[in-house]
Amino acid sequence: MTNSERKRLAPTPAAADLEGLLAYYQKQIREEAFFYLQKRGITEETVEQFRIGFEIGKIGFYVDQNQLGDYFENRVIIPIRNYNGEIVDLIGRAIDHREPKYKPLYGLDQYLFNYAVLEESDEVVLCSGLFDVMTLVQARVPAVCVPDYAVFKEHHVSMFEGKRVYICMGNDESGRRESSRIESLLREHAKETYIVILPETIRDINDLFVRAQNPIDTFIRLINQSVEAAMLAPVAPDNKNSTIYLEEYMKRYRGQVASLSTGFTKLDNLLFGGLGSGLYLLAGTGSIGKSMLLKQMADQLALDQIPVIFVSWDLTNFELWARSIARIIGIAPQQVLGGKVEPDQVTEANKQYAKISKMLWTLESTIDTSLEQVAASIERIAVIVGREPVIFIDHLQRIPVHKQSGPMTWQQQQAAIAYTLKQWSREWNCPVVAATALEFGQDTVTESVQASADVVMIMKSNEAENNQAQALVLELTKNRNGTLGSLPLQSHMDRALFTE
């Protein structure tokens, strides 16, 4: 069983009576829940219409018995329905400051909230969240959204076939980028698509309706402006995105770029502070230490309380764990793998590893494990932790190609896999770090694979200092996130450790 399977959100849908459970939560709704909803501009009529419930504390159910315990404690609970109107998921929104703000029961992402409105209207507003939708429904404006923990994907596109869609995501940099991404997906399927831009200082649609004096008039005016802008400029000039560009520059100027340390200072400097969103390829010949270096970086990030997912088609979960334990103790991994270490030492090292493992998920994959299956696991883990993880892939040549992809050459297969990983980094706005093997005599990654990469790092042997430590050099031959360069590394195989 993989780590993601052990840390499931909840029982399978068939194991719980969601109708009965929701009815229970509806009976628990009380003053503090109504007070929160009223602050968000949600009326009692809407509470009844969407069957919003509340959980104040433990109710006598327990997770291990396929029940819920205090899973939704201090959260208003909103049901998600499938396309037959049946409840298939519940989402709890914290009414205090606890994280994650939105906590789903199952994390299903294939459904749209308020989907039924698409059968009634040829025009619809595609919002960023549940409260945006309920706010517009109160104003008699047709609206839908993907649940707050999910993202809009290609399988949602067909639902908007022939519709006029007004896209209005959050009013920040990521929201505006998301609006543009969704618009590009819908462009060839929807009848018309428009991006609605909210006024400055307004966070989202719900915030607009709470704060504006005449919110519905303001919103209709914004919609009309988006239509007029599209008619006047079928191909938008750069000034449409100038605010986004300025925000990005100011973040860099203030040193606010969200970079994650690799644990190697010189590498972080070359990477403009560390790992950012994008695809990073770590290439090298066989047995040079790519997997061990990836695992060391992954452990460091997890120790820094950054969620990490390590996917391996090459090593088992036990073999990966053994490398971490060996590094903590300061011995060669073979001693752990061979059972040659005193149990007390391993037990103590495992206690230290617990600090790492709380934010680390290792997914042991086989020849039958597709990238689609891995992506589904990653999404569920992201729901659990309430933020996007750093993804490590070991390694490209082991990943099976989807059978429906048609006949491809080996190079085309590798290029297709790299492209998929690049799309992951864009969709989830996170770093994806993948190892790739070089053949003997090959000194760089093929151009078709490099095309998808933001950063290419080549591990090369420099010279052996002794039988235990090997001098390596890590060359950055492509770097969209900083500068080209190289840094020396010492590989201590007797300690499962890399040092600068």
TrEMBL record:
GO annotation, cellular component aspect: cytosol
GO molecular-function term, one example from the UniProt record: DNA helicase activity
Cleavable signal peptide: none
Alphabetical list of InterPro entries matching this protein: DNA_helicase_DnaB-like_C (IPR007694), DNA_primase_core_N_sf (IPR037068), DNAG_N (IPR013264), P-loop_NTPase (IPR027417), TOPRIM_DnaG/twinkle (IPR034154)
Any GO BP: DNA replication
Every SF4 helicase domain range: 253-500
SUPFAM superfamilies: DNA primase core (SSF56731), P-loop containing nucleoside triphosphate hydrolases (SSF52540)
UniProt-listed Pfam families: DnaB_C, DNAG_N, Toprim_2
Protein's name in the database: DNA primase
Organism placement in taxonomy: Bacteria, Bacillati, Bacillota, Bacilli, Bacillales
